Amino acid sequence: MDKLEVNVSFSYGERQILRDVAFSVRKGELLAVVGPNGAGKSTLLKCLVGILRPVGYVKLNGLELLSLKPKERAKYISYVPQSSFPEFAFTVEEFVELGTYATEGDVEGALRKVGTWERKNDLVTKLSGGEYQLVLIARALAQGSNVMLLDEPTSHLDINHALQIMNLLKDLKDEKILVSVMHDLNLALNYADRIIVLDNGQIQWSGKPSHLTPDILEEVYGVKAKIVDIEGLRIVVAVE
Fold this sequence. Notes:
Layout: E1 3-12, E2 15-26, E3 30-34, H1 41-49, E4 55-60, E5 63-64, H2 70-73, E6 77-80, H3 92-97, H4 107-114, H5 129-142, E7 147-151, H6 159-172, E8 177-181, H7 185-191, E9 194-199, E10 202-207, H8 214-221, E11 225-230, E12 233-238
Parallel strand pairs: 3-8, 3-9, 6-7, 7-8
Antiparallel strand pairs: 1-2, 1-4, 4-5, 9-10, 11-12
Helix pairs in contact: 4-5
């Protein structure tokens, strides 16, 4: 079974952003990375995909990905950045084809998987935020990589599109290793198989969502909270 092993540190000059961030994740798991703003979450994903060059290693089944050239590395790992407004008026199909520059990817299959094949001739500049996020994921799927990294895939989405994205990731985890930075703790608690809590560039806690406690949240986020169970869902509630 595919396994990603990570141990990275990263600095901007003398300012250390990540310090000995080490974990592993297997296919069949959705690993959520949570933490306050400035914790180093997005930097971590950029290190894993090779946009930034960390100290340490990122290994897939023993293969050191950071030693590969970018085009070769793209065969193994893909990256879905935080959603931003598209700058060029590509059609949906053309936009997803950009993900196949390193591989002979399946554009139609990727679009069908996220439910947007019927929009293939529409311009990406005309899509809603939720639709565009689905197309970003389709572009990464078209790479055919073993690992998919996602940076806050539900940010700025309404609840309908957010749940659509999370259910899609739930389905994809049996095909790929998934690591997602998540802003919404409630989505992380109810969809992730494991959670890493990052703060000040270090892992402060990691484990199953059912083991996360309010004490950890207070220590990292600086707010009092409780975690309640409502009809099988775990919900974070702020406490005055």
